[in-house]
Design a protein that fits this description.
Mean pLDDT of chain A: 92
Helix content of chain B: 25-40%
Radius of gyration of chain A: 22 Å
Largest interface: A-B, 28 and 35 residues
Strand order of the largest sheet of chain B: 1-2-3-5-4
Shape of chain A: globular
CATH architecture of the largest domain in chain A: 3-Layer(aba) Sandwich
Order of helices and strands of chain A: HHHEEHEHEHEHEH
Number of domains of chain B: 2
Mean pLDDT of chain B: 91
CATH architecture of the largest domain in chain B: Up-down Bundle
CATH superfamily of the largest domain in chain B: Recombination protein O, C-terminal domain
Strand content of chain A: 5-15%
Oligomer: heterodimer
Structural class of chain A: alpha/beta
Shape of chain B: elongated
CATH class of the largest domain in chain B: Mainly Alpha
Chain lengths: ~200, ~230
């Protein structure tokens, strides 16, 4: 059975979301149309507003509808410490730990030569300009612990060698509550290489 | 026709996201050469394959499939030799990008597999990275059918590398226009033996390999080279 054009359009549009296949999209569409028209209107207006107004924070490149995001505008953050991340979701992950009081910079990806992603395709130039302003004393490179993430961290560290600032990389290793027996060799090798003195 | 590969030695060259939780992974296998396979669920948060299917880790993989795109059934790491860090890591990405660009799918290169292991071990050890890279490039060209006829030159002559015809022509005058493509015969003979003792020889070998590889890449440069440059 085929739906009317508008319903079909809605079902197809909902499928752009991650985790939503044809069946889920149908269920969502019928739920909104049959049971919750107000929520549907609210959703559509929220989507439109967000899509039109949310852009990037001019300082840290995370998603924000204002020129400066809440974290960059806050006066309680330590501006001498900068954490470099791959995506805006990583900012949330670090914020949830309550272990970091500094400011962030979102690269928007990682270097991947085979995919043709070079230093000019992610925010490295803007990052270097920000560091050159001189306020920052420590740069924490928290790109993902993948080969590409490590290469990105190494590239940035190389660019910053001339600066008189501390450049650190987040540790890689065994997950908390994990058992060594079940940890893969690569993670264990990194954990051993990054061991610290007690 | 059913395609079945069991417990084959392999390395991951590259992986990219596919659908929501899967990935398309390019493997360099010992007996089948470069193969692309779907790895279902690799990008799920709890997937154990995430850590295993990283480049530069020696693996044993089992693959199935009737089409060109295979499906990974199993992958296990078989002994880590060490971790690539810093500049060696960028060199590793350079090697993988060359392999990805120059190897045709399903062309077996068992000799090259050995040279790939050699270059990775040298990158991990960090003793002579430049020499190891030149040796690998030399054998990559030979294995892909673009071997350089270096053994036919004379040590007293200067040669012009004609990339269009893939041969060395003796030259009398080195001019400004052909200088970049001219090589001393004795340097070419040393490169043929993978002997990169002096800085001058290393420079010549680097220039020769770059000319040959750039020609094969038909004007599309290797992106990993940009990562060696400082802004």
């Amino acid at each position: 059975m085929s739906f009317s054009p508008l319903i079909q359009q809605l079902v197809t549009a909902l499928r752009c979301l991650p985790g939503v296949g044809p069946k889920s999209a149908q269920r969502m569409a019928f739920h909104l149309l049959e049971r919750d028209r107000n929520a549907a209107l609210e959703l559509s207006s929220a989507l439109r507003l967000a899509a039109e107004q949310v852009s990037q924070c001019q300082q840290c490149r995370t998603l924000s509808e204002t020129d400066l995001c809440q974290l960059c505008a806050s006066s309680s953050r330590d501006r001498s410490s900068l954490c470099v991340l791959e995506s805006p979701m990583d900012v949330l992950a670090i914020e949830h730990t309550n272990s970091f009081g500094g400011v962030y910079f979102v690269l928007g990806g990682h270097l991947s030569p085979i995919d043709g992603v070079g230093p000019d395709d992610i925010g490295i130039q803007q990052l270097l300009e920000r560091i050159n302003e001189g306020e920052i004393k420590e740069v924490i490179l928290a790109t993902n612990p993948t080969v590409e993430g490590d290469a990105t961290a190494h590239y940035i560290a190389e660019q910053l060698k001339r600066e008189s600032l501390k450049v650190t990389r987040i540790a890689h290793g065994v997950p908390v509550g994990g058992e060594l027996e079940y940890v893969d060799g690569g993670t264990l090798a990194h954990a051993l290489a990054g061991r610290r003195l007690l | 026709m059913n395609y079945k590969v069991d417990e084959q030695a392999a390395y991951v060259l590259h992986s990219r996201p596919y659908l929501e939780t899967s990935a398309l992974v390019d493997f360099f296998t010992l007996e089948q050469g470069r193969i692309t396979a779907v790895v279902k669920g690799m990008r799920r948060p709890g997937s154990k394959l995430r850590g295993v299917l990283q480049p530069f880790i020696p693996l044993q993989v089992s693959l199935r499939g009737r089409q060109e795109l295979k499906t990974l059934i199993q992958a296990e790491s078989v002994g880590m030799n060490g971790i690539l860090n810093g500049r060696a890591l960028i060199c590793g990405l350079y090697v993988n990008e060359m392999m990805q660009r120059l190897l045709s799918p399903y062309d077996a290169h068992p000799h090259l597999y050995v040279y790939y292991q050699y270059v990775l071990n040298e990158l991990i050890a960090g003793h002579d990275i430049e020499g190891a890279l030149r040796t690998f490039e030399h054998h990559l060209l030979a294995e892909t059918g673009y071997g350089l006829a270096l053994d036919l030159v004379s040590d007293q002559t200067v040669y012009y590398f004609d990339t269009e015809n893939w041969r060395f022509k003796a030259v009398v005058n080195i001019t400004e226009t052909n200088r970049n493509r001219c090589f001393h015969g004795k340097d070419l003979l040393a490169i043929d033996q993978d002997c990169y003792d002096t800085p001058q020889l290393r420079q010549s070998a680097k220039r020769l390999m770059r000319l040959a590889i750039d020609h094969l890449l038909a004007g599309r440069p290797l992106h990993s080279r940009a990562l060696f440059q400082k802004k």
